[in-house]
What we know:
By secondary structure, the protein is mostly helical. The protein is 68% helix and 0% strand.
Amino acid sequence: MNTALPVSKHSKLRRLLKPLPASCLLYRHLCTEPNPQPPPLRLQDKESKVAQAIQLLVETPHQEWSSSQPLQSLLFSSPPPSPLFLFKITRSLPSSFHALNFFKHLQQNLSSQDTQFLSYSFQALLEQTGREPDAASRLSELHQASKEWGVPLTVKAAAFLIRYFGRLEMVDKSVLVFNELVPSLRNTHVRNVLIDVLLRDSRFDYAMNVLDEMLQPISEVPPNEITGDIVFNALVKRGRKGRNLSEEDLIKLVLQFGKHSVFPKTNWLTQLISGLCRSGKSNQAWNVLHELLRLRAPLETPPFNAILTGLGRSGDVKRMNTVMAEMKESGIQPDVVTFGILINQLCKLRRVDEAMKVLNKLGEGSGSDGVTVEADVIIYNTLIDGLCKVGRQEEGLQLMERMKSMKGLAPNTVTYNCLIDGFCKAGEIERGKQLFDQMNEEGVSPNVISLNVLVDGMCRHGRISSALQFFSDMRGKGLKGNAVTYTTLITAFCDVDNMGKAVDLFDQMLTSGCFADAVVYYSLISGFCKAGRMDDASNVLSKLKEAGFRPDIVCYNSLVSGFCKKKKVDKAYEIIKEMEEAGMEPDGVTYNTLIAYFCKAGDFAVACRMMKQMIEAGLVPTIATYGALIHAYCINGKFEEAKKLFKDMSSVSKVSPNTIIYNILIESLCKNNDVNFALSLMNDMEAKGVKPNTNTFNAMFKGLKEKNLLEDAFILMDSMIEHACNPDYITMEILTEWLSAVGESKKLKSFVRGCKVSTSTA
Length: 762
């Protein structure tokens, strides 16, 4: 039977609920007879009475309830029933239909002053209705009816309606229920329910308005821990619509709660501190913790670990130590994570000795600081890795042995990988291989990182064949490589122009099920470009695009360079056009490649135009730019243009020439018999602090020999010794032939011994 209460039927309800004759009210519990109050019923007796009432209500048709003396006596006899008694009966009836009829019965039999009794029964009626399928409309009707009947809601009934309407996405209805409550019912519990509903519906501003009243310094409805949990949990959820609190407002909110002795849970506070630190606001994070400490918040270790991590990212070890000192003063015990963070940061800053002191302090057990934390495998691995990264692999080995002696600790795969990597990077490949074998012997399973570390070490030190053989052996033993393994090997073979092997490995990589990333394609393209195999490079470029990758600027520059070397400048321009269409502008490398190409082709007009475009694009010409132009001018006998460009380097472009630029000019000037200007450039090098090399002196000796400027040669021989430039076979060939011919062999012998040969005071 439908028990809904549409608004249109309220008049009918009034007729149904009109007062009964006085004879029917004899059983009202507000009896005026002066009977003494009996002693209160025991809990068992109360429950028995509830069960009796329910049985009578179910077995008796509701039209006959008023005439059932046993029922009336049970419900309304002296002593008067308690509101809880009527609440239990209503809630325990089999359906909302029975509950509604029982509520009507109470209305007929209770005085208009007994609203508390009706309110409790009405609360139970709401709960009954809320469990049934068409609850949404029926709850709305009951809420409206309660206002017409003058039945005030209990706090729990109000909270129930607000929450239930919220779950049904009828949030406006929830707000209406709250606004219609008398102020005394808008307590902390009801506000908590409303705030939760509003936040779940992304009505952030409205929720904050309700919360503001609770957070006032002297509030009649102060927040409690439930308020804090609701608000903080909602705020921490990423992507919630309407969450417009800045980090500063968030901090203010936390401190406002704190003044009411309501503090965020550890996990939420840790997330707040971590977020502030990631945003570069470590100072604000520390101020929050300071203020919470002042408010006597029961803080735990994780938020302090979060701020230590943040300070570690910025390398602020001094403040990390300050934080740890203040933790101690506040009685907050650091844990193994705390010390791990400190040790990790010290190792990253290569301050390994300080990190070892922290470890030794832990090893002392309960020392003067009361530290009882013992180092775990992660801390030992961090220190071993730190020692290896600063080239102290032997100490890393010793630390591993110390680790073995600790109870409950044993080296794992990470431990060995750190050591193997350290020895391989130091060029001690055999030691790395020995450790790899040792970990197998000790039952520590190597993983693909162990494999990759050794393969990379071998490739870096020119042992590519050994790396490939080792990789093949490991595959035979079931340790398969991944994309990193193949990429390392492919890149190594590309670097030594063994493109055939690189392609074979690429094919093997795909057939083995490894995912080829962009780096592999870039390596192959670069290798083919260096080898001048531009058709193959173009094919790999097509495969790269088919795989869903986009070439980067380095890849495009490799192709431009490759096509320029093959004198296919039109193809190079096609690549540049494609690069620009992909949203990438040519960089300095692109321009330098084209400038070098046109310089070699003798097309100086285009080369200079390219350089002008480069500057207009906001790029600064580099040594490579000037070097290509100066070298081309010199080769083509345009020495004046070369000198002018050299002068412009320092005065206009502010690019300081290096040894290579000086060598190009000095060699070209000496070949052109302009030895005096070449000597002046040597003086210019000295003045600007540019160190000459053996090639510089060789070029000068050739020029001086042609002019037979012997004394100047002696001075340069002394200068060569001063600059610690070792003579090579070209130097000795020039000077032996020249000095022997002029009878100065003794000076040549003195020069070879590193003795001064010039008698000039210049």
